[in-house]
């Protein structure tokens, strides 16, 4: 059970994630439907945000590994969200999106890596297993993602596009208030020692990159599937328009349950072996999703998708962190940057494959990419750093 004094921290994480989940899936819809821009401009905005957010994450990670406090960095992220949302409330135009929106929401996107790094510090101070605390944080973020997108589109439907950003402005103010009163001010990592050149250091770097490439492949598979499934269900299988929403609800519910189950499975099986089983399950689940022909099969497929992704979302970050214990903030930023890049690539790739073939083909390609992650982890397990890591 989560210790009661951790609930304020998890509340801060929930509200920060809620702010991001309200904005990220909504911006593309706003740019096209609200501003009347061409669809390709979504990629322009998303590309700028991704590049800038990755750069910010790397800089913040270096600062934290060198002993900087995460407290002001979280404040920067919350302030970025507030400025961007407020600007779009009062000036809902494309130039605002590409200036205040890009700068503010890029800074806001850094909060996830910073909060998970801070969570690692808190877990160490309270003698809580980092894998268990990662599970608590992932369950919190998944819950926020259950609420945020639905809230954005509901507000937009009832009150118009500008109301979404007004609502986000209010949530950002709450985020800033929680940050000021809840976030630990003095928590910080011990400054990392000077890097040791030589074979041992190189082995560690190779192990980290094996873990990152594995996460990249399985995350690309998930984003390809996630993008293609709604249109596959409605246009190619012939299910009713409300079906994708039901599938998403089932997926997210099972995902949270799987996240909470992860620490127990890690204790019994170990991270690396459990990750391998999860990747195999991903291949089978995505193959099943590509064969769905009925509403009942869709619900079962959504549950399988949620189960494998819930396990992966918790295991993946712990796996990457296990290869850079002397640079935990760097490893955490690597993980979140990888997810950000795969999210940027997955959507357009699914659309391109569907344009050339169909959405079912995009899902089958996703299954092949998931299989590649199995091969990478299987071959990577022979590397001495992977065999010797704490993820074994």
Automatic annotation (TrEMBL):
Classification via Pfam families = MFS_1 (PF07690)
**Which residues are listed as membrane-spanning?**
7-30, 42-61, 73-95, 101-123, 135-156, 162-182, 206-233, 245-267, 274-295, 307-324, 336-357, 363-381
Q: Which residues form the Major facilitator superfamily (MFS) profile domain?
A: 208-392
- How is this protein situated with respect to the membrane? Multi-pass membrane protein
Classify the source by domain of life: Bacteria
Q: Does the keyword Membrane apply?
A: yes
Q: What is its main location?
A: membrane
Gene3D superfamilies (alphabetical) = MFS general substrate transporter like domains
UniProt xrefs under SUPFAM superfamilies: MFS general substrate transporter
Q: Which PROSITE patterns match?
A: MFS (PS50850)
Keywords, A to Z, come to:
Cell membrane, Membrane, Sugar transport, Transmembrane, Transmembrane helix, Transport
Concerning its family, UniProt says: Belongs to the major facilitator superfamily. Set transporter family.
PANTHER family, per database record: SUGAR EFFLUX TRANSPORTER A-RELATED
Its name, as the record gives it, is: MFS transporter
């Amino acid at each position: 059970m989560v210790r009661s004094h951790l609930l304020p921290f998890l509340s801060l994480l929930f509200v920060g994630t809620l702010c991001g989940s309200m904005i990220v899936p909504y911006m593309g819809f706003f740019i096209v439907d609200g501003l009347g821009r061409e669809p390709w401009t979504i990629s322009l905005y998303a590309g700028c945000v991704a590049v800038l957010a990755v750069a910010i994450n790397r800089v913040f990670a270096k600062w934290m590994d060198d002993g900087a406090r995460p407290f002001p960095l979280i404040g920067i992220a919350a302030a970025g969200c507030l400025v961007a949302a407020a600007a779009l409330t009062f000036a809902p135009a494309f130039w605002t999106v590409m200036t205040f929106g890009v700068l503010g929401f890029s800074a806001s996107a850094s909060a996830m890596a910073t909060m998970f790094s801070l969570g690692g510090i808190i877990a160490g101070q309270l003698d809580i297993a980092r894998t268990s605390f990662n599970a608590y944080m992932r369950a919190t973020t998944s819950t926020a993602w259950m609420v945020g997108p639905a809230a954005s589109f509901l507000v937009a439907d009832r009150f118009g596009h500008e109301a979404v950003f007004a609502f986000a402005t209010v949530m950002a103010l709450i985020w800033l208030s929680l940050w000021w009163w809840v976030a630990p001010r003095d928590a910080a990592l011990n400054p990392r020692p000077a890097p040791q050149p030589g074979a041992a250091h190189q082995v560690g770097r190779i192990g980290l990159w094996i873990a990152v490439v594995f996460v990249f492949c399985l995350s690309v598979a998930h984003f390809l599937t996630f993008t293609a499934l709604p249109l596959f269900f409605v246009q190619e299988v012939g299910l009713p328009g409300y079906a994708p929403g039901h599938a998403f609800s089932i997926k997210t519910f099972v995902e949270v349950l799987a996240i909470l189950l992860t620490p127990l499975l890690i204790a019994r099986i170990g991270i690396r072996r459990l990750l391998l089983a999860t990747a195999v399950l991903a291949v089978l689940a995505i193959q099943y999703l590509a064969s769905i022909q009925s509403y009942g099969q869709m619900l079962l497929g959504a549950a399988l998708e949620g189960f494998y992704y819930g396990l992966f979302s918790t295991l993946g970050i712990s796996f990457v962190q296990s290869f850079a214990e002397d640079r935990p903030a760097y490893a955490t930023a690597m993980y979140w940057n990888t997810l950000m890049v795969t999210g940027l690539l997955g959507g357009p790739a699914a659309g391109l494959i569907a344009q050339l073939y169909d959405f079912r083909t995009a899902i089958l390609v996703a299954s092949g990419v998931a299989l590649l992650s199995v091969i990478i982890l299987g071959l990577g397990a022979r590397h001495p750093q992977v065999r010797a890591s704490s993820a074994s």
